[in-house]
Amino acid sequence: MRADTLKPPRGLEAARPNPRDATLEWAAGRLIREERLLPGGAPVLVGVSGGPDSMALLHFLSARGAREGLPAAEVRVGHVNHGLRGAESDADEAFVRARCAEWGIPFESASVDPGARRRARRESPEEAARALRYGALREMAEQAGCARVAVAHTADDQAETILFRLVRGSGLRGLAGMRATGRAHGVTLIRPLLTTTREMVLRYLERHGIAYRSDATNDTIGPSRNFLRHEILPRLSERLNSSLRETLLREGRLFVEADDYLEGRARRAFPRVLLAREPGKISLDAARLRLYPKLLQRYLLRSALRELLGQVVDLSSAHVEALLLLVGAPSGTQADIPSGVRARRERGNVLGLVRSREPRGPDPQSKA
């Protein structure tokens, strides 16, 4: 069924799920409870583009609040108009605004110009749009008094992210995929649909008669992620593994467990290798670093970058290996890595990490 032939929403009073087919409600509700994504019924800003995933998320969270006796104002909407599709982008904003008015949900919007940022910083269109989108959502969340922003990444997005990061070479942490709670560009994100499949989303929309917008650019294979989605994943599923999505998700959960364990060990060991911390610079004891297994050294180096930049850094495994080589390199050896960091092997077994410019943020394809 096409989006523009769906009946208009019947209102939040019709959102109580049918137990026989409430698969999205079951998956998202379970994840919210297990990961405590919405503690204490605190207000949350929902990032809504108007597409099927975000419309399903908005309707579900609004209906959930109504069922649990929370006022509709506890859910607010933030829409970012990138202006990349001209009149279509404006129509997306008008659509989301109208649905929020119909459902009684506070609506905020922001317009951004990825082209200007891209020219100024030499970023890809996706990277520029992503940075501006999260920056706008952060500002809207702060103005609305919301500590968290809900985004509509699904299990299909998770599987694509894991495979993309495997191809790109992002190491163990990258293979863990997205987390139900995370941060990007200063925004605390929650992903209630991360265990919900795209099929569940579409069934939910049809069951509740929820209209949505379609973005034709998602069907092109120009962007790397679209190429992976439309060309690579279907071929792998057809030729090698008909349950590829489920396999990727299962492997991702194993990587999460390994990543959490190593992150915990690195957190406890980090004070032992830290020599000095000052604005814009971290100094590490290279001799002590070499006492740890190389796998743990990689996590300690990531910890140092997080301390330096104040955010989780999404690096490829090649960049982490460049840092690792410096641990045993001669004095004077240096390397530049993404996020505006210069690493230098200094005298006296010191490895210095210096923030040389403003970080550009996580890789745009990480979909973090």
Could you name the CATH topology of the largest domain? Rossmann fold
Largest sheet: 6 strands, mixed
- How big a fraction of the residues is strand? 5-15%
How do the strands line up in the largest sheet?
A: 3-2-1-4-6-5
The global form is: globular
**CATH class bucket of the largest domain:** Alpha Beta
Indicate the radius of gyration in whole angstroms.
Answer: 22 Å
Give me the count of strands: 11
- Enumerate the spans where pLDDT stays under 50 for 5 or more consecutive residues: 1-15, 359-368
Structural class: alpha/beta
Order of helices and strands: HEHEHEHHEHHEEHHHEEHHHEEE
The DSSP helix count reads: 13
How many domains make up the coordinates?
2
Measured as a percent range, the helix fraction is 40-55%
- CATH homologous superfamily descriptor of the largest domain: HUPs
End-to-end distance, in Å?
30 Å
CATH architecture of the largest domain: 3-Layer(aba) Sandwich
What is the topological layout?
Blueprint (H helix, E strand, L loop, with lengths): L22 H13 L8 E4 L4 H16 L7 E7 L5 H17 L3 E5 L2 H8 L3 H20 L3 E3 L4 H14 L2 H5 L5 E4 L2 E4 L7 H11 L15 H16 L4 H30 E5 L2 E5 H4 L4 H16 L7 H11 L6 E4 L3 E6 L3 E6 L13
Parallel strand pairs: 1-2, 1-4, 2-3, 4-6
Antiparallel strand pairs: 5-6, 7-8, 8-11, 9-10, 10-11
